[in-house]
Amino acid sequence: MANLLILGGSGATGRLVVTQALAEGHSVTALSRHPDQLSVTHARLKTLKGDVTEENVVARALAGHDAVLSALGRGQRLTSQQLMTRAVAKLLPAMATTGPKRLIHLSAFGAGVGKEHSSGLQRLLYATFLRSLAADKAVADAEIGRSGLEWTIVAPVTFSHGSRVGRYRVGERIEVRGLPAISRASVADFMVRCLGDRATIGKRLEMVPE
Hints:
Elements lengths: L2 E5 L4 H12 L3 E6 L12 E5 L7 H5 L5 E4 L12 H16 L3 E5 L13 H8 L3 H15 L4 E7 L1 E3 L7 E4 L9 E3 H10 L9 E7 L1
Parallel strand pairs: 1-2, 1-4, 2-3, 4-5, 5-6, 6-10, 7-9
Antiparallel strand pairs: 8-10
Helix pairs in contact: 1-6, 3-5
């Protein structure tokens, strides 16, 4: 079992990553600006309050952990404020210097290379309403890919409101039609599963419902 640092642990997806990791027997430190919003208590759970984009916040939190799972996001907001870019600018150097080396990072299907094989409806969203978010994630993904860490980028399609783990497909390039959606619980399940699967290292893996 691993000691995990989960970024964005109080967010909609982050809470499920925390819950799933605990269920699998891991010890978890959840770093968030609003740890009071994480309505989970457990003997193997510790919470830290902090903004990952601020100097030394992540660096101080890394000690004693075996892997980092980033579930950072902007919630329902449509402007990125360069959250991902600013976060990895602090995270990647700190991990390279002090460890851990394992990073599982939540991105999005249409960010970066995923845009090339998105459906027409998805491309329309990425070019309009989700343009700021997709551009920010694409920059962060590229930085992670050049980091030299043992990284996995998880790129799901749009989130549904389902709270249960469903059947899903994972691959480096998945062609889709329309606007498929996947539950946050399914994404959390896969992110935690990546910890035990070294075949996922160095890969950007897209997720769609089966």
